[in-house]
Design a protein that fits this description.
With 337 residues, the chain is an alpha/beta fold. The protein has 14 helices and ten strands.
Length: 337
């Protein structure tokens, strides 16, 4: 009896917290936003998700203020990625409810901005009744001011120094990279890999133990010091196993001009950007033989690449350029109304 009641209560709580726990601030956010719109004669709003409860907010604001130009700014693909990784997983009822919330919000908005081509295509496919012009791609980027004084230098090591920065969790698991090195004992001993940043609680730390190559874990440190450590690295490591997201670190890596070893699906946005920018090596993580060959190639050249990065392509991802694109989208959206 207790188990049945607990199961019933859990279902009710999950339903109450759909689309996310932040929904609890919905009535307060709605009251405050409505007050600000009236008092300041606001004409355009941007609703950034996650949290996806903002979809509920933007729908109601559009109902109250029909004159508003509303832009949905989608940072993460929701139904194909976020809810399955961090949310409802196999809860069919909640997945359907999430779909209903998204549909209502997309219909209410004047523009929908996605940060990756895969996410944009997915949104379009889920909402074929909406005009194609409603959907806009504006990726994430890097702040050029952070890298204005970037000074690449030799690390004075005999080993090839590989660096990963940022949080480590399942979608960016480096296991296949470390496994491939383990199968190359003569090569592995010349590799040294640093992982700088937080390790997610659910991530199995045993991934880093008992390796043939040297592995160092460095806890979270200020960005300034991370950049200094990037200056001396030979290779920047980018494992990316999610088709719908582009890790923000990719753009920071690009800003350094250092060679990148990207482990990603060849059809992904990450692979496309790597090709555009000539930023280094791009390997399908499911092709273990290709990864081994690439690690051997890097070993032979001691991390050196013969092709210079395409700076013209890299600069397109600088935030001033992206802000200009976003401003244009806002003006076009408001003008269309």
């Amino acid at each position: 009896m207790v188990d049945k009641f607990r199961s019933f209560l859990t279902r009710k709580i999950k339903r109450l917290l759909c689309p996310d726990p932040q929904v609890l601030w919905y009535p307060f956010a709605l009251r405050t936003a409505s007050k600000l719109i009236r008092e300041n004669d606001i004409q355009t709003i941007i609703a950034t998700a996650p949290p996806f409860s903002v979809y509920l907010l933007v729908k109601e604001l559009k109902r109250r203020f029909p004159h508003l130009c509303a832009i949905a700014d989608v940072r993460d693909e929701w139904l194909k990625y976020f809810v399955r990784e961090f949310g409802f997983r196999d809860n069919k009822d909640l997945l359907e409810r999430a779909g209903e919330i998204e549909t209502a919000a997309i219909q209410a908005c004047d523009r929908v901005v996605a940060v990756s081509r895969a996410s944009l295509d997915e949104l379009r496919s889920r909402h074929p009744d909406q005009p194609q012009s409603k959907f806009v791609l504006i990726p994430n980027g890097y702040d050029p001011a952070v890298f204005a004084g970037f000074a690449p230098r030799s690390n004075k090591r005999r080993k090839i120094l590989v660096t990963y920065t940022g949080t480590i969790y399942r979608p960016c698991c480096p296991k296949v990279y470390l496994d491939a090195l383990d199968t190359l004992p003569r090569v592995a001993c010349d590799y040294e890999t640093r992982f700088i940043g937080r390790i997610a609680e659910e991530f199995d730390r045993r991934t880093f133990t008992n390796r043939r190559s040297a592995v160092y874990l460095i806890d979270f440190i200020p960005q300034k010091h991370v950049v200094e450590l990037m200056e001396e690295t030979d290779i920047l490591l980018l494992p990316s196993h999610d088709l719908y997201a582009i890790p923000g670190k990719l753009f920071e890596y690009l800003a350094t001009g250092k060679p990148i070893l990207a482990l990603c699906d060849p059809s992904s946005d990450v692979a496309d950007i790597m090709r555009q920018t000539s930023a280094g090596w791009c390997v399908d993580p499911s092709d273990f033989s290709a990864l081994r060959r690439t690690l051997e190639e890097i070993h032979l050249s001691h991390g050196k690449v013969t092709k210079e990065p395409n700076w013209e392509a890299i600069v397109r991802y600088s935030r001033p350029n992206l802000v200009a694109s976003y401003a244009q989208t806002i003006w076009e959206s408001a003008g269309a109304r």
